[in-house]
Amino acid sequence: MDPIRNPYAPGAGQRPPELAGRDEQLRAFDVTLERVARGRPERSVVLTGLRGVGKTVLLNALRSAAVRAQWGTGKLEARPDQRLRRPLAAALHMAVRELGHPRPEEVEHVLGVLKSFAQREDGPRESGAAATRAGAGGRSGAAGVRTSVRDRWNPGIDAAAVPGRADSGDIEIDLVEVLTDIGGLAAERGRGVAVFIDEMQDLGADDVSALCAAAHEISQNGLPVIVVGAGLPHLPAVLSASKSYSERLFRYSRIDRLDREAADRALVTPAADEDASWSPEALAEMYAVTAGYPYFVQAYGKAVWDNAVGPEIGLDDVRVAVPEAEAELAVGFFGSRFERATPAEREYLRAMAEAGESDDDAVATAAVASVLGKKPQSLSPARDSLLKKGLIYSGERGQIAFTVPHFGRYLRSHGD
After folding, report:
1. Domain 23-254 = CATH 3.30.9.10
2. 134 CB contacts (<8 Å, ≥6 apart)?
3. Predicted confidence band of residue 415 (pLDDT cuts 50, 70, 90)
4. How much of the chain exceeds pLDDT 90, in percent?
5. CATH code assigned to 345-413
6. What is the pLDDT averaged over residues 91-97?
């Protein structure tokens, strides 16, 4: 079949031609947008799930829904080595620009507050004299050392900073102030503002706490601002550890693999648009090898299309293409992650695969230690490093699991 017309999209975060199995989340979000815009109380949204279940795709689809509703939107991807302030400022800048306002002077003021927020470093408030010296000469402290390029970062906001607002250096105070001003601007427009945060579990503890506190304050004040986050399955535990009220602050939605009907639709509908079809036997085999994980559905679908004669894709086409799809996944999806691990971490991952009864179930850290014949405490450095790298997660104390579906199967089939 013509590879140019191949409709399947296994790229990271790429929207598939048929976004199957997510109708419930899309409908619920439409209701959220309408309720918030009307001043009704509503919670922010958090999507959780393993790698490859389509969280980023769904996050982008929700943002598109907000844009269609004429909301102001901005998106950022959290990183463990970056504080929240600057990427959030950039996202909020985009949201204010999308929102618009008939009175430019009000927009100018809000952008000025946002600029103050963006340019302030997190930490204790500087004295006025110290701030003046740093701002006037690009120098810091009595030593007169020139600030780095990072410290002189310009957020690209075309407005004069508004001193004394959202610039205390306390991220929690500053975030409440800047979101309050932006929320007021949105309320005057009869619309809302939504901030979309991917990989939300990678936010630092202080930033998570500030985000939860600010969202709580904004919700109490009835302002039309919401946060829509996406992250790994342990994200609710991260939020709960930060603020005890987070379970009431967010509406959690677990994004999982597709059921058989949705997985079939993800394959059949794009093929029909290209005058092709799938036999029932081929669809059954595809579900058996992909287990309904959206990324795998797209990856195997692409390989099968390229190898099939068509116009109907049959069981033999699937069986011929499976080794090719698995070889590509072994390099790009599984292998690239495994290569990030040190030898000690790889040993730990293999022990997890051996200790687990199912590829996607959690295993006890004690069971991993037993496989390796070591004390659990001696394995803590490897485990903690794997957690930071996002290769495993811990949903509850003493339990760990792979963040990638079928990773255990890959490790068992690819020895040293």
Report:
1. no
2. 126, 140, 147
3. low
4. 77
5. 1.10.10.10
6. 95
